[in-house]
Write a structure and sequence with these properties.
The chain is of the alpha/beta class and 363 residues long. It folds into 2 domains: 172 residues, Medium-chain alcohol dehydrogenases, catalytic domain (Quinone Oxidoreductase, Chain A, domain 1); 140 residues, Rossmann fold. It has 10 helices and 20 strands. The strands form 5 sheets. Strands 3, 7, 8, 11, 12, 19 and 20 form a 7-stranded mixed β-sheet that branches. The longest helix has 19 residues. The N terminus is likely disordered. The structure holds nicotinamide-adenine-dinucleotide and zinc ion. The site of nicotinamide-adenine-dinucleotide (NAD) has 30 residues, from α1, α4, β14 and α7. The site of zinc ion has 9 residues, from α2.
Length: 363
Amino acid sequence: MAPNTNAEEDNLTCVLYGVRDLRLEQRPIPEPGENEVLLKIQCVGICGSDVHYVVHGNIGNYIVKSPMVIGHEASGIVVKTGTGVTDLSVGDRVAIEPGVSCRKCQFCKIGKYNLCPSMKFCATPPVDGNLTRYFIHAADFCYKLPDHMTLEEGALLEPLSVGVHACKKANITVGSSVLILGAGPIGLATLATAKAMGASQIYITDLTEYRLNLAKDMGATKTIQIKKNDSDEEALNYVRNEMGNELPDVTLDCTGFQQTIKMGIEITKSGGVLVIVGMGASGVVQLPLFNALSREVDIKGVFRYANDYPNALAMIASKQVNLKPLITHHFKIEDSLKAFETAETGAGGAIKVMIHLDETGDS
Ligand code: NAD
Ligand code: ZN
């Protein structure tokens, strides 16, 4: 049933004003324009980048200069449609792809819309995110969920789409041997995708045991725990040894630190692919490029996703992939500060922290 739009005009919204200055405040309920829908937001997952903006006030050149609504991994229910919307109706439950591109530039036209220079991406400054009860979004970037999918799963399509995009770039196929570096939500979403795409061997590393335990439950062939203070060489030798000296066809770096990217080059089979998803090291990193070129290890970058939401949705809807175990903590929007604290500290074995905005919804 469609929720009531006029519920006391309550549009509680979580706004980032600056470093560690996250506030809950009321905002007016917006009106959808042409080809837009008004959504009653149901679930918002907290991503590492949201936490990074809260803690540091920036990611690289994206700086929070004016108050910005936080959040970008969301699902909602359509409560109003603007003119021109034909594919969605009031009451539809949708996953929200958070980046709306211009649809006109050369990148958009060739389908690489994640590279659109005019991209408006939720909670990437100065664009507002969707940790708010009522949110306007472009209708063509909302994906209707089948009845048997939960709204939490709808929110999880965001990190899953990153995994889908990364695995497509890696050309994972039946029988692939895959190494994933880092078992955070992105590494785990990548694991689930690689498995669904037919990889036969999936190794995954992390520093923390609880994340590796979940990776094992999700079907990793072998989990490998790296010690925090291991040198690059020690970590590389350890992983090689644990893999029984079988080299992976594909390595996906889901941490983005120098040590792991370097390992990704050195450990990938000659002629294989290293896909860099992690953004941990935003500065300059030193890498053994000669090693990569002399063995034709292709290095590819991943920036979010493009045309991957429908695949992510299909994988969940068909039950090929189950990401529910990633959700370790639940909070109401009123407790957003606590939710962000949990995501930041990882307290209680946090992996994905989910914020709920509508008690009347089925999330
Ligand atoms: P996360 O911080 O929850 O997970 C990273 C994991 O890497 C942690 O579990 C950590 O213990 C592990 N780790 C750290 N150092 C390690 C090492 N030396 N060896 C093995 N594991 C190590 O983050 P996440 O949400 O899973 O995201 C992963 C990365 O992907 C982040 O850098 C994030 O910014 C990036 N990301 C990139 C894109 C993109 O479009 N390219 C999109 C989303 C996230
Ligand atoms: Zn464009």
